[in-house]
């Protein structure tokens, strides 16, 4: 009798420690997601800047000089909100925006930055925000940016599109960090830009038409994800929504935007611009 009771108690202890180990492992996995994957494509101006404002102004001016000296009127610029070594494979930058040439009143070269940002109080709702280069760079964690320059015709079309009532026609206010570009239920900054480019190039504001066409033309970035990670992620960070991903986690990155323009014959060049020392 005592032997049987001892075996039962031993089994219960093994089970208890096993459950504790599983909980600990899951918690550590969740923290990993929170610290590493939370800003895969985080679209936010909220947070403490890593670099001094003066340096951000200098970096912004360097981008302005680069674009203006090449007579660029519209570009797509991407910055990294996480150290690159912490980003998943295939992801180099976390936030992108349209930059349009809008010189100052005295003629000084300047670019206005057109972003999609999620809210502060409600991080699941996004809005379209216009700011300046230094604000765009506020949360950068790297000393470089990715630059995509469309061909001259597309640049002029972008200026006309963004300055028209059509801008925002494909904006989905429901925000997700890793929204699926084949699904219209959620959107992040890069997907908004991709949808906007498609709406402009293909001449349709119909998101359903755009998403169906993407399924036959687009190669989004796949994020490696385990069963546990998919379950814990949304608990750790409400922005990590996975309900729009039936299979692999697919999302839009800078590479996707460049690929779309290239496939449409509208890409002039894409490259990284060094802003300072590492």
Question: What key phrases describe this protein's structure?
Answer:
8 strands, two-stranded antiparallel ribbon, 41% helix
Word description of this protein:
With 278 residues, the protein is an alpha+beta fold. It has one domain (39-274). It is built from 8 helices and 8 strands, in the order ααββββαβαααβαβαβ. It has helices at 2-37, 53-69, 133-136, 152-162, 189-202, 207-217, 227-236, 254-263, and strands at residues 74-79, 95-101, 111-118, 126-131, 144-150, 221-223, 249-251, 267-274. The strands form 2 sheets. It has a 6-stranded antiparallel β-sheet. It has a two-stranded antiparallel sheet with strand order 6-7. Strand 3 and strand 4 (126-131) form a beta hairpin. Helix 1 crosses helix 7 (227-236) and helix 5 packs parallel to helix 8. The chain is globular, with a radius of gyration of 22 Å. Residues 29-41 have low confidence and may be disordered.
Estimate the global geometry from the Cα principal axes. Answer: globular
Number of domains: 1
Secondary structure: number of strands:
8
What level of helicity do the residues show? Answer: 40-55%
Decide which structural class fits the backbone: alpha+beta
Overall mean pLDDT = 84
Radius of gyration using CA atoms only: 22 Å
Main sheet summary: 6 strands, antiparallel
Spans of at least 5 consecutive residues with low confidence:
29-41
Distance between the termini: 69 Å
Q: Write down the secondary-structure element order.
A: HHEEEEHEHHHEHEHE
Q: How large is the share of residues in beta strands?
A: 15-25%
- Main sheet: strand order: 4-3-2-1-5-8
By DSSP (H or I, 4+ residues per run), the number of helices equals 8
Looking at the chains present, what oligomeric state does this protein adopt? single chain
